[in-house]
Amino acid sequence: MVARSNRKWTVEAYLQFERESDERHEFYGSEIYLMTGASERHVLITGNTFSSLHSQLRRTPCRIYAVDMRVKVSATGLYTYPDISVVCGEPAFEDEHVDTLINPTVIVEVLSPSTERYDRGKKFQHYRTLKSLKEYILIGQDNPQIEQFTRTDNDRWLLNTASQLDAQIELSAIGCTLLVADVYEKVTFEPGEADEA
Kind and range of the H or E element at 86? Predict the structure, then answer.
């Protein structure tokens, strides 16, 4: 991630700028970072995952948000836009604008070559400080693979991986099941890619 400008931003200036911008930016440590567009695979996988979870969460106390819902990690000051976030119970927002969520239960990120290291590393370090977060889901786009990190009662994170199209992941925090085949519906892999998982 490369800072968009050399200017040092305050939170207030960032939020004002972001609410008037046609682009999305991450904010951390007085700098803003432009979030770039996504590949077709990324868009399809995100849409498939959102659709699957949305249908399962109807008539439940959970709400699902697509990529335009900003999330603040209060403990570290990161403002970012997960591909998908879910809140079970009453959503909490930073202020009266109701556009910055602070209590996600589940966060889903679809990995891109340019962001995979960040999503697995530093970003996950930020997310782990969210006391509300119960599960963190990473979805590959170069081959079928879903990684589920689940917070335990003693604040450890357990990893579960599904990499076969007939496999599934149980998201117990929100009472949903992600079928790998559904997540990758209509996603085309190059010859041999789907076998590499």
Answer: strand 84-88
